[in-house]
Amino acid sequence: MEEKPLQSVFFHFRFKFLAITTIAFLMYVILSGAGEFDEFAKSPEFKMLGPFLLFAMALFFTFRKFPIKCPHCHKILPTKKNWRCPECGQEQGKDRYLIDKCRHCKQVPATSFCDDCKEEFRL
Ligand SMILES: [Zn+2]
Ligand SMILES: [Zn+2]
Question: Is 76 inside a domain boundary?
Fold first, then answer.
């Protein structure tokens, strides 16, 4: 059926990477923590937790907005647009991020189309 696998722009990969980093950091803080909560709350690892989570959130919003590049024509594409869902084929009706779930079938889009060359690629 498919002649060749679709090229990927590693859009979802950004968020997987961020999630894994955040979980790894939380594990580190929890595992390195002292038994007593008072001591734990005073530890430098615990104090880093707040700034780290803010940083992770800032990265999340940056990643969400950061444009993707079409693997076919190398045009820079916005990540927020009225995208057509590859699952149910319906348009979103308003500008939404590609990380959002489809309004109709609640699926996160796995692929997207280039606005310029109309080629499909994996997110
Ligand atoms: Zn293109
Ligand atoms: Zn859909």
Answer: yes
pTM: 0.84
Residue 4, in any domain of the structure:
no
Task: Identify the nearest ligand to the CA of 119 by its number.
Answer: 1
Burial of 11 (0-12, 13-18, 19+ CB in 10 A): buried
For residue 16, tell me if it sits in a domain.
Answer: yes
Phi and psi, residue 122, nearest 5°:
-85, 145
Q: What is the mean pLDDT of the chain?
A: 93
Compute, in angstroms, the gap from residue 88 CA to the centroid of ligand 1: 22
Domain span at residue 15 reads 11-122
Distance CA 5, CA 71 (A): 12
Q: What is the spatial distance between Cα 115 and Cα 123, in angstroms, rounded to a whole number?
A: 14
Number of domains in the chain: 1
CA of 109 to the centre of ligand 1 (A): 17
The pLDDT assigned to 3 comes to 65
6 located within any domain: no
